[in-house]
Structure formats: C-alpha cells, structure tokens
Amino acid sequence: MRTKGTADTVPWPAEFRSALEGFCRYLTSERGRSEHTVRAYESDVTQLLDFALGSGIVALKDLDLSVLRGWLGELSSSGQARSTLARRAATARSFANWALREELISENPALRLRAPKKEKTLPGVLRSGQVEELFKTMQAAAAEGEPVALRDRAMVELLYATGVRVGELSGLDIDDLDPDRRTLRVLGKGNKERTVPYGLPAALAVDDWLRRGRPALAVPESGPALFLGKRGRRVDQRQVRGVVAELLEALPDTSATGPHALRHSAATHLLDGGADLRAVQEILGHSSLATTQLYTHVSVDRLRQSYSQAHPRA
Known about the structure:
Layout: H1 14-29, H2 35-54, H3 65-77, H4 82-101, H5 128-142, H6 147-162, H7 166-170, E1 177-178, E2 183-187, E3 193-197, H8 200-217, H9 237-249, H10 259-272, H11 277-284, H12 289-292, H13 294-310
C-alpha cells in the first residue's frame, strides 16, 4: 500500500493512509469485492490522493470537485481511454460516498463529477459453424485420452454451455456439479450464487474428464477442485485463457478472442434461439438487465445482416 505522495519527499498525511485502508476494508467486508477488484480501487484512490496532495490538499475535507475534475483532466491529457476515465470517476464517487458515510467529509464533492461514457463495442462472437469446428478439433485431440486434452475439452464445453466467467470456471469444485439435473452451482461477482444449466455435450465432456483425465493429474493438494493444472493443483485463470486463446487463434475469419468470447457467443446464440432476456440475465449472472441487453444489439445486427443477404428488396 502506498504511504507517500507522488514525490518521495512528500509523505502522505496519516488521514490519507487511514482512509485508504478503511475504504479497502469496506470493499472487502461489506461489499464482498474480489481481491482483484479491491486492488484496482486501491490503485485508483491512491492516484487520486497523490494528485490531491500535489495540488496542496492535505486533508480530506478540502477535497472538492475542482480537484476531482483536475485529476480526470490530467488522466485524459495523458491519453487514458474513455473506459478507464469512466472507471476512475466511478471509483472517486464510491470513495467519496464512503468518506461521507464515515463522516470524514461533510459534503460529497463527487455528486456532480462526470466522465466520458464508456464506449459500447459489440463483442466478438463466434458463428454456430465456428463453434462446431472448435469442438470437433477438441474432440479429436481428446480422443487419445491425454489428461490435459480431456480437461481442455471439458473446460471449453462448460464455458460455452453455461456462459460462466473464466474466474467462475476456475473456482468450481466437483460438488458444484449436479450431473443428474445437468446444472452447475456458480459463485459469481459479489459472492452471489446462481444455478446454471448445461447440455449433454458438456455433460459428456466433463464426465470423460472426471473418469479418465482428473485421476491422472490429481495429487493430495488437488482438494475438491474440478479442473486441475498439469501439477495437480487447481487450474488458474491464466491457464484457461491460454487454452482458449490458442483455440480461437486457429479459427479463420473471427474477431473473437479469449474466454469471454465464449460467454458472448453463448449469450448471443441463446437470444438468437429465442431465449427470454431475463433468463439469459440469470444464466450470465448480470446484476442489471441493461448489461444483458448488449447482446440483443448483436442479435439484431445479425438479423439485419441476414435480411440484407436474403431479401430480394433489401
């Protein structure tokens, strides 16, 4: 944790250090944020307080709107993306709200803070034919029974079948599976639990991994982890990303990259197939329906493209 301002010769006021520590504890204990998310918040608030100190602010009560705007302005001048500016503005608002609640400040300086809206770009999505090609490749590789190939096939099948995030997949335990009902218990963002269904292809791939692959890699330290790395410990997110990235790179004519592309594809294909938007929201674990609605834009875009190609008077 940072204890000094931008210049090493300028120490942070004790109030700054205490506030940063308290805010991080609040994010962890009350908001249930992940370690990764808390680190991101901590970094943003550290930079904000560094800027405030450089502007002559040595007490939180003197943190005002002009300082917050000056901080975002400096970030913008340095070439920060709009999405980054929006995130840091959100961090400033969260920090100010918390500080007001804790009576560290008497007024909230972030109430009128605005940042550029995040760019909404359509996610890279696989076509149905590309999904089939992907799984044919994986099935062929797994046919020889090599444990890692069996694991990779099961992981990718589950990612596409359920639309889970890569962190949710790597955190799965064997007991999270209900093979009879073909459902998966997932612990998502904010420690929110949800149940997600999956289909027969994923069920067969996971069963094959559990019967032939996992026993070959398991060690005493494996614990209940569903998916294991080559050394027998729980697979980490970096390994999963590497597996998916390599598979997608081998596919021609696609902008889809990484595990999130499988999540995007699953959501889009569900909506293309007529799934209810609320059901897709529940499956993906989105707290807001507006987030899920992004995929309706993808589906409409595909509909428009199909119309243009097929209708004689398009």
